[in-house]
Design brief:
With 157 residues, the protein is an all-alpha fold. It has 7 helices and no strands. The protein has one domain. Helix 1 packs antiparallel against helix 4, helix 1 packs across helix 6 and helix 5 packs antiparallel against helix 6.
Length: 157
């Protein structure tokens, strides 16, 4: 029977893989849309984000994000894909979790939500990513275990 630490490690590995699958599902939908994803994102930000986002974020969207929507859409897809792959395989898990936290924070801000919003799955995913960022979740069933043996002082794993 596994001891307490093993249960903790297995639980963190499960959360890591779960969050990776969530990001994989999200990015798959974006990839399936192909170039049309740029229009979908622009429509969401223009029709929903500019009306519902926090005031400081509305300004960021109108001044920086929407004028560069094609680049932003590409960055979102690349980042989500990288996060999904890294979390599922347990590679550079802490870095992937920090990137996930950045993405999720932006998603929440564009919807006018905060980290403690009870109706936001993004805030729940953010908290999972936070737990992964401060733990060694990639060392169980992940590539980080091999990387930690090779570079034991790195904070990435």
């Amino acid at each position: 029977m596994p001891d307490r630490n093993q249960w903790r490690d297995y639980s963190l590995a499960g959360l890591r893989i779960y969050l990776g699958v969530i990001f994989a599902i999200a990015v798959y939908a974006k990839l399936e849309k192909g170039p049309a994803f740029v229009s979908v994102l622009n429509g969401f930000l223009t029709n929903f984000g500019l009306q519902n986002a926090h005031p400081f974020y509305q300004r960021l969207m109108s001044d920086m994000i929407i004028p560069h929507i094609s680049t932003i859409a590409t960055l979102v897809v690349v980042a989500e894909c990288a996060v999904a792959l890294a979390l599922i395989t347990g590679t550079a898990t802490r870095l992937a979790a920090v990137i996930a936290m950045f993405l999720l924070t932006n998603y929440m801000m564009s919807k006018g939500l905060w980290w403690w919003s009870p109706s936001s799955n993004d805030s729940g995913f953010f908290m999972i990513a936070l737990a992964l960022a401060v733990s060694a979740a990639g060392r169980i069933f992940g590539v980080d275990a091999l990387l930690a043996r090779r570079w034991p002082k790195s904070i990435l794993w």
